[in-house]
Amino acid sequence: YNRTFWDSKLERQQVAAQFVWPADGRVQPAQDSKQLLNHAVATGKKVFFVFRTHTCGELRAVHIGQEVTLCGWVQYRRQDLFIVLRDFDGLIQIILPQEETAAQLKKILCDISLESVITVTGTVISRPSGQANPNMVTGEIEVRVQSAEVLNSSRKLPFETKELVKKSEALRMRYRYLDLRSSQLQYNLRLRSRMVMRMREYLCNLHGFVDVETPTLFKRTPGGAKEFVVPSREPGKFYSLPQSPQQFKQLLMVGGLDRYFQVARCYRDEGSKPDRQPEFTQIDIEMSFVNQASIQKLIEGLIEYSWPEEKGTITLPFPSITYAEAMGSYGVDKPDTRFGMKITDVSEVFRDADVSFLRDALGQPCGVVRSISVPKGNQYIFTIEDWFFIVTVINPCQQDVTFVTLQPDGTWKSVLTKLLTDGEKSELCRAAGARVGDVLILTAGDPNTANAALGKLRLECATILESKGVALRDHNAFNFLWVVDFPLFLPKEGNPEELESAHHPFTAPHPEDAYLMCTEPQKVRSQHYDLVLNGNEIGGGSIRIHDMELQHYVLETVLKEDTGLLLHLLEALDSGAPPHGGIALGLDRLIALTVGASSIRDVIAFPKSFRGRDLMSNAPDLVSPEELSTYHIQVSQPAGSGEDTTQS
Amino acid sequence: YNRTFWDSKLERQQVAAQFVWPADGRVQPAQDSKQLLNHAVATGKKVFFVFRTHTCGELRAVHIGQEVTLCGWVQYRRQDLFIVLRDFDGLIQIILPQEETAAQLKKILCDISLESVITVTGTVISRPSGQANPNMVTGEIEVRVQSAEVLNSSRKLPFETKELVKKSEALRMRYRYLDLRSSQLQYNLRLRSRMVMRMREYLCNLHGFVDVETPTLFKRTPGGAKEFVVPSREPGKFYSLPQSPQQFKQLLMVGGLDRYFQVARCYRDEGSKPDRQPEFTQIDIEMSFVNQASIQKLIEGLIEYSWPEEKGTITLPFPSITYAEAMGSYGVDKPDTRFGMKITDVSEVFRDADVSFLRDALGQPCGVVRSISVPKGNQYIFTIEDWFFIVTVINPCQQDVTFVTLQPDGTWKSVLTKLLTDGEKSELCRAAGARVGDVLILTAGDPNTANAALGKLRLECATILESKGVALRDHNAFNFLWVVDFPLFLPKEGNPEELESAHHPFTAPHPEDAYLMCTEPQKVRSQHYDLVLNGNEIGGGSIRIHDMELQHYVLETVLKEDTGLLLHLLEALDSGAPPHGGIALGLDRLIALTVGASSIRDVIAFPKSFRGRDLMSNAPDLVSPEELSTYHIQVSQPAGSGEDTTQS
User: Fold this and answer.
1) What's this model's pTM, rounded to 2 decimal places?
2) pLDDT tier at B152 (50, 70, 90 boundaries)?
3) Which among B1, B316, B635 has CB closest to A633?
4) B618 contacts A219? CB cut-off 8 A
5) Ranges for the Aminoacyl-transfer RNA synthetases class-II family profile domain (chains A, B) (predicted)?
6) CATH number of the B339-468 domain
7) If one looks up domain A50-152 in CATH, what number appears?
8) Complex ipTM above 0.85?
9) How is B388-422 classified by DSSP, letter by letter?
């Protein structure tokens, strides 16, 4: 332990404290905060309250001749000639002094390790003729250092910072504080902050929404299998971390708040689902005296208002399709509309054709034959590897598919070639919209299964085509899409005789279908709506049930739930609940799609790994039995389990 | 179950949906969102996206003659003549039609229960001459109803809404959604939202702070006895809900984020401490390349910028006193400076006086005699009840006190009367600043104990005086105060030979005391600072240790902590950590003091009770052993414990 080492550092801190106000006299400590604010706005707000006079990234030719003080990290050093200094705002080249009189200063700067933190004072000068770097926004100038100080030296890092991006994600998460220094993560987090701020301005300042914080220590919801539990000091009693503020936002409407929003932390324990985080953030919105179209308009305005300029223009209104159309044309309720390859119904072609296995399928109740046409499929698709992918994709559907390759010479390669007449062949191509060079994929069965299989194949074939260089989707396009008219109830998984809510039990039925609620609830559409971006669900909401009797009927008679657990909500609905509805946007996903990140982990400062672990601090971790006894719980090790601390 | 009942309601919803856009033609659905935004800004943004054309509270004489559509709650009905309709924005009087042709409309409005939700369309008219209500902002006008619709009827509530405020707090929390309709809670929550929005504008838009969300499922901190645990699916492994984002914000600085803020949800399990909530919110701020004075300036500007106009002007800069001064003059580290009654040292008076018990105390090492002078104490204080209070207050200090009543006739009532000479008496009055009519309270012992006892008595006497009508503190004053130069370490509770951090182990030592770190760490002051408002701590922060070796020394050598648990932080400090510091403001407390609420529960939408219960939903609650088995835990009932579900 080296005492003088940090004693001298403490002294430096003391000295550095005198640099708080910019040395160029622009701001005096005696000025009051109003003046400071005006000044901050006028000058670009980057220098306030800190040692530096400028950020590294803001210097330009206009600053030539000025004396500046900068703070930052040593990004790069070339021999004994210059250092590249980095801060959050960018890079700047620092020229080391070559005079004999500055030998000590030069030595300090030459000895310092990369990623050490220094402050330098010097003069902005023009780079010598012909040496400007057009790839660097500060490339016209450099700073000739006059004095410098090492604020903190860095150990030799286990890898170079700029290499970290190429390292495994586990290593990046273990050293997340180094990963955060990358320009990509800096950009992602700053863009996130900026977009959220714009959303707040739109909701709070322009539309009178009230930002209300709701509790995260709450009661377990009926059937809340994915809710984390939090033991309390009352024996056997647990809080639950809610999956969304759904109940609270409805209660706020009953309480007359009129317009609520919150950037809400939510929790979902899904074990190890890929690209899910145990905690996530949603833009949570609820309004009274409103209908579906109004909420959609509000959200379109919200996205437009918060959309970053550098990502192009958003066109309003967003297109809208029904759930039935989405399933029929794309085989999925969150279609990627950046490309075609829609599902088409070709049942009529095969109704009388001599293809027994397809005719048999059509003979079943609701039986259909449907297809997608893969453009240029003959040229680009269907290597052995492609087959392997495709089989993997459709396997979960247990669905047989038939292929027709429309070869350039006009002939077919398919088991159907000899079974169809020429007229039937051209009729099939017409119905399916297939052209020479395409591959036609057909499947038969009930519509839901056929659509689901073709929907997955559509996406898989798009990925394969793109991997082979076909320009199919515009990766700079942002295709927002509303999906509406979802079913209110779905057959329960595992027990299809019973119904469960397609979304949640508070969703209001579609007014046109209300007459079916008592007789055929499975046919009732809901007032639920999803917002989809490039094939990803980024939001969902609904008009809620505001009538106590209807809510009670749905819970007790349709869903067979124990209404006692939601008694407070039923009582609230019966106490003057206004008509209301809302929406929640998945912020992590929206930002990831906006910046083009492949994972939401790239837009979260400290994400968890696949298995829900924090690889930096090694959470979750063991807790002593004594500490657990406060909460009246003990660990029950599962039989045959071993310790498992290394995997992530 | 009455089918037609809600079927007809659903139809009404459908009808109501056509009211979405204001009927007065000001806005057409075809307009794009940019136009809407401009319009929203121009018109005051209260009518958008909803059925209504105006809010109840915004109508004035200028609207006379206009047809308006309003939505709201039936607040009050007088015979068959009028209804008072309420929404979040205020109250408006609705005149019922008396014509025979409108008999059905009249009947609907006469039959409706209080707190039902209705929409009415009618014409704004002037109130008859002499009938204007000057106590109502809409009191010059009323609305003559032309059509109306019941959107939702309310059951007969267990109490009248306006009476709820007089009910027990338990009842208010059980029916929180009704309590939220009160104008006071509406004001509190809206002011909170407004102030937080202004803070965000100041930090984000004016000063370049980045809003970063940090995880709440984290690793247990060493000695984190007040952290809730969250079982994970890994047997025996637990997350912890952090008490603050302290580690994360420092890691963000190491990651080069430069300026971080977050309106952060924090968790603290303190059992049943009064006026604490298991979850609370802090404005969390951290900056790089900064010193203490800069952060204080930043925060002063933040408070000024976000301060609500209706609460008067804030004067900057805030006064600042050292911890030592605060303890010496007020006996507490969060002084209420709205009144005097400061502690004075009167040791010199008694050094030679013939008062043996005081002279003996002065003979002890560090022994002192100190006093406070209670103005008008002779007139207003010291009934039997006052004595009881005072004894209760000082009892925890185990401190004897002596009283001197300076009676109007110039005589003393005190055990000291006969022990002091006239000269000593007047010297005591001079030293203590006591006047005729005051009561002087004296105590002797070591300075810490004496100050602590007098500090408590000072506050208690102020409360007693105010309860008797003496105007002591200005309850419209907002006395902000910095307390600085706290000790870095304190003797450990229960083991005074060892040291513990006065705040947390990441606090940097005061540069002037750095030389004492190895020799006399107990004498080192810190770079910690507290922000105090009217005697309440509303924030605290510090310059942090950015040097790995110093941090390691503090943790291992001074505090005897297991550094292994903070290895990730030590590694981060050794990887190029910039000098940094920050602060956290307790938002709940700040808002409560701003609005003058007696409890933070009045500025939280859904607070927990004293015992941490949600009285509306009855959380925490039992969870089945099957559900707990996912998390490999089981409940261990404490011996002799019974069920306890009713208390709160």
Assistant:
1) 0.91
2) very high
3) B635
4) yes
5) 189-607
6) 3.30.1360.30
7) 2.40.50.140
8) yes
9) HHHHHHHGGGT--EEEEEE-TTS-EESTTTTTS-H
